[in-house]
Amino acid sequence: MGFRLFGFALALALLLGGGEAARAQDGKVHLLWLGQSSFRLTTPGGKVIMIDPWVLQNPKTPAEWKDLDKLGKVDLVLVSHAHGDHVGDAPAIAKKNHVQMWGPAGLADTMVELGILTPEEAPRMNKGGTITPLGPGIAISQTRADHSSEFVYVNPDTKKREVHVGGEPVGLIIKLENGFTIYHMGDTNVFGDMKMIGEYYKPDLILIPIGGHFVMDPKEAALATTLVKPKFAIPVHYGTIPQLKGTPDEYKAALGQTDTKVMVMTPGETATF
Ligand SMILES: [Zn+2]
């Protein structure tokens, strides 16, 4: 009886969050896609990094994730540029967890200027060099991205729309404790220096926009993939709004025979490496 009760308690514990705890300590990379360019990354050492976290207003985020409490503890927030579908809930998540939001330097300045974040919550960095805000095991660099980065804001006092400096858009290179390297490309068109980014940082995985109109379409994304030569590619930033017409099937067709494994995800799914 006692054993059965213990077994029941254990099963319940696993059900109630033991799974999350196990996930955090299994030495693997877990990437939960929340739609558009929004990911929750759990590192092999159990750190949790939110990237471009647009959750509450994101039409592709499953209902079960539309609650910032559900994300669990977060250790760091990264933002690729100032557009609303990328900044999204980043300041709220940084405040809630008492952690830093790293993005383009100009966006950090605007966050401080508008009183959204403090200078401690929004430190400045830029393209070039590497930061290690979670300790030496996790290295983060910003790369070029061919896009724009206006910060559109409704002033709570005047209720009027304002456009502020958002810094330059960036791609994010995240090298994890076990060496696994992720290139979150941000919003971008294809550019020739992606070849150099691939050769220098040797990303295992790219998170690549394919929707077109504002970012690469499937053909441009296929060219970008051949320049970077990653082991894995997860297509993102498509289907969220009508202009983002590109599909994973078109991307795979444009890519043809390749050594890169394309992983097509559904929002709410977790990829493990
Ligand atoms: Zn954008």
Elements, N to C (H/E): HEEEEHHEHEEEEEHEHEHEE
Extended strand count: 14
Return the structural class. Answer: alpha/beta
Q: What is the CA-atom radius of gyration, in angstroms?
A: 19 Å
Query: Helicity range of the residues?
Result: 25-40%
Report the end-to-end length measured between terminal Cα atoms: 40 Å
Q: Which strand order does the major sheet show? A: 5-4-3-2-1-14
| Residue fraction in strands | 15-25%
What do these coordinates show?
There is one protein chain. This protein has 273 residues and is α/β, with parallel strands linked by helices. The chain is built from 7 helices and 14 strands. The strands form 3 sheets. A 6-stranded mixed beta sheet has the order 5-4-3-2-1-14. Strands 6-9-10-11-12-13 form a 6-stranded mixed beta sheet, with helices on one face. A two-stranded antiparallel sheet has the order 7-8. The site of zinc ion has 6 residues, from loops.
Briefly summarize what is shown.
With 273 residues, this protein is α/β, with parallel strands linked by helices. It is 26% helix and 21% strand. The chain starts with a helix and ends with a strand.
Q: Which terms would index this structure?
A:
single chain, 273 residues, alpha/beta, six-stranded mixed β-sheet, disordered N terminus, binds zinc ion
Write the layout of secondary structure elements.
Blueprint: H1 2-24, E1 30-33, E2 39-42, E3 48-51, E4 76-78, H2 84-87, H3 90-97, E5 101-102, H4 105-113, E6 139-144, E7 151-154, E8 161-164, E9 170-175, E10 181-184, H5 194-201, E11 205-209, H6 218-228, E12 232-236, H7 248-255, E13 261-262, E14 270-272
Helix pairs in contact: 5-6, 6-7
The structure holds zinc ion (ZN).
